[in-house]
Prior knowledge:
The complex is a heterodimer of chains A (about 650) and B (about 80).
Chain A: H1 13-21, H2 26-36, H3 43-52, H4 65-68, E1 72-80, H5 88-97, E2 100-106, H6 112-117, H7 121-126, E3 130-134, H8 150-175, E4 178-182, H9 203-221, E5 224-226, H10 228-234, H11 244-250, H12 259-273, E6 280-283, H13 294-297, H14 309-326, E7 330-336, H15 339-348, E8 361-365, H16 369-379, E9 387-390, H17 394-403, H18 419-426, H19 436-439, H20 441-457, H21 461-467, E10 471-476, H22 482-491, H23 504-512, E11 517-524, E12 529-539, E13 548-556, H24 565-579, E14 584-589, H25 601-604, E15 608-610, E16 621-626, E17 638-641
Parallel strand pairs in A: 1-2, 1-3, 3-4, 4-5, 6-7, 6-9, 7-8, 10-17, 13-14
Antiparallel strand pairs in A: 10-11, 11-12, 12-13, 14-16, 15-16
Helix pairs in contact in A: 1-2, 1-3, 3-5, 5-12, 8-9
Chain B: H1 3-18, H2 39-53, H3 59-62, H4 68-81
Amino acid sequence: MEQLRWLPSHPDLSSAIKAARGQTDPERRLCDAIALTGYRRDFIATEKLDRLIADCPTARAGSELPALMHLQPARLAVLSSHTVDHLVPGMRVAGLGRRLALDITVTPYGLYRAVLAERDAELAAFAPDFILLALDSHEMAFDLAIDASEAEVARAVQERVADLARLWRAARSLYGAQVIQQTFLPAAPPLFGSLERVVPASPSALAERLNDALRDAARSENVLLFDLDLHGRHLLSGQALADPVRWHQAKQLVSPIAAPVHGDLVARLLAAALGLSRKCLVMDLDNTLWGGVVGDDGVEGIRLGQGDALGEAFLAIQGYVALLGRRGVVLAICSKNDPRIAEAAFSDHPEMVLHRQDIACFMANWDDKATNLRRIAQDLSLGLDSLVFLDDNPAERDIVRRELPVVAVPELPEDVADYPVCLSEAGYFEAATFTRDDAGRAQSYRAKAAHHEALAQTTDMEGYLRGLSMTLVASEIRPVDLPRAAQLINKSNQFNLTTRRYTETELEEMIADPGTIAMCFRLHDKFADHGLISVVIARPDPEWEEQALLIDTWLMSCRVLGRQVEAAAVEALAAAAARRGIRWLIGEYRPTPRNALVADHYGKLGFEPQHPPAEGGNAVRFWRHAIGDTPIPAHVIKLKALQ
Amino acid sequence: MTETQIYAELTDVFRDVLGNDAIVLRPDTTAADVDGWDSHAHVTLVVATEMRFGIRFRTAELEGLHNVSDFVRLIEQKRSAA
C-alpha cells in the first residue's frame, strides 16, 4: 500500500536510518530523524525511525530538546477498546514531521471505562494534554434487531451519544485534557448492497447515524473528532485501513500496514489543535495553475477552460484552491514570470477561477524561489513554517526543500488531475475549528500585503496608519465571542505573551469570575474587517497586591502587527480596570521558542520592569503599569468600547 | 527461490522489524530465543513477512507459526503455488 504520497521518496531510506543510528549524540540523532520524517515511509521504516528517537528525551518534562528543535511538546493518552500499541510509533514519528514532540501513553485496551469512572493515579501523573477515545463498533454494539424502526434506532443512537458525552466530561474533569473522539467504522460489511443505509439498523446505517450524532455532540461539548470513518473512505482510496485477519489475530482495528498514515492523521489533528497547521498556500503558475507557459504562449495560448480535458483539469485545481481560500487559507503566487504578463492572465483570461483579489501576495519576477518565498512570508507576517509551496517542477521543489526545509513542499503527482486529492491528503491545512472569522481571513491578509506595499512606498508611517482609518472595538468576551477567542488562545504562538492555552470551557469559567477582566478586540479599517484579532485577560493573583491584576493572557493575531493595536488595547484595559478600582496592571512575559517577537512588549508600552514575586530565577519577566500614572502610548486608532 | 534465499530474506525482515542486526535465524528458533519477539512484534513480523514475500498467511495458518521453520515452510508453499 503506497501511503504518504505527498512526501518525496528517499533514494535509500534504510541506509540513511542506519547512518543516523550511528549518531551517538541524541540531539543530532533527533535532528536526523526529523529530516527523515520528510520522506515517504512504510510501517517498518516508521518503526525504525521511532527506535531512533527512543532515548531522546522529547516530550518529557524538563527536557530542553523540543524547544531547541522547534518542536512543541504534547502528551497524548490513547484510551481504546482495541489494540493500538502498534500505531504508537506511527503517531510519534508523524508528530516530528508536524513539529510535535509527542509523549504517548496507551491505557490497556478495554480499560478505558475504568480510568474514566474514577481518577487513575498513573494517568493523572502522566497529565495528558489530549485524550483520544478510540472505540470500535464491536464495543459500542447496539442491541437492536435488524428490522428495528427508525425511532428505535434514533433512541439507541441518542443513548450511545449521551453515554459518550459522560465519558468526555469525565476525561475532562479527571485529567483536564482536550478530548478527541474517534468516529466509528461499521461493525460489518454491507448486508443489503445499495439499500444498506436506507435500512435504519443495518451496520453501515448505525455507524453513520452514530457518527452524525457524534459530530453535533462534539461541537457543543468542545470535543475534537478524529474522523477515521471519513479518512477510511477518502484518504486510503478504499485500501485496507482495517484487515479482518489482524482483528481476529490481535484485535487491531487498524492494520499495522496503515500505521504511517494513521499516525499522520492523528499528528496533524493534534498539530491543528496546537496552532501548528500551515496557513498559506504559495503556488507556481505555468503548468501548475494552467497548462503552458504564459510568457511564451500568451494569455490566449494557455491551456485552461472547458472543452479541453487538460484545460478542465487545471480548472479543477484552481477551483479546489479557491475553496481553500474561502475557508481561510491565505493564497500567494511565486512564479518566475514577467509580473505584467502573469497578472494579465488573472485579469484577462475569461476562464480563470482564481482572481487577482484572491491572492494575498503576488510575487512574479526572475529571482530564485527561496528568496521569493522569504519575501512572501515577510509581506504576510507569517513564519516560513506556515507556508506550503506548490510547484509542478521537481527541480524547483528540490531546491526549495534544500534551501528552506521548514517550507512544506508536496511531491505532486505527474497528472494535474490528481493535484487536488494530493493536496487534500497531505493535510497541511488541518483545522480544529472553523469560524466565520476564518472565512474572512484571506481578505485581511490581502489588506496586510497591500499595507506592506503601501509602506514600501511611504516613509511616513504615522501618516500611513492614520490614512487607514482604523477602529478597534473593545468588549468583554461574550458567549458569542468564545469560539473565536478560544481558537486564538490555542493557536497564537508569535504574538503571545504567556502562551497559556485554555479550552472553551476553561475560558468560560475564567470569564465567570467577577474579578477577572477578559477582553477581546476587533479591528476594522478602510481595506478590511479583520474580525476578532486580540484577547487580553487580566485576573487577580495571590502573588500580587489585592488592587493589582495580573495580565494572564495577551495575544494578538500577527496579521495586525505594526498597527498600534497594542497601545489602543492597553488604553481600553486600563480604563476597564480603573472602573473597578484597580491600581496596577502586572505584565508577564513567558518566553517560548516562538514568541521572541513580544519579549519587550510591555517595555514598549511604557510598563516599568518589576521584580518577580517569588524567587523565580527562570526566564519569566514581569512589568508594572500604575493606572493613571503610567502614560498610555500615543496611537491613531479610534477606540470604541462596547459595555 | 531456494530455501537459503528464503532464510536470508527472512533474517533481513526479522532484523528490520526487531532493530537488531545480530539476529541469526535457525529452523528451530522461537520467540523465546529472540529479544523483542513478543506478541506485538509477532503480528508485525507476520505482516512484514507477507509484504516482503508478496504472500498472505491465512487466519488458520497463524496459530501454527511457532518457529522459524514454520514461517519458511509456509513461504515456500505459497511461493511455489503462486
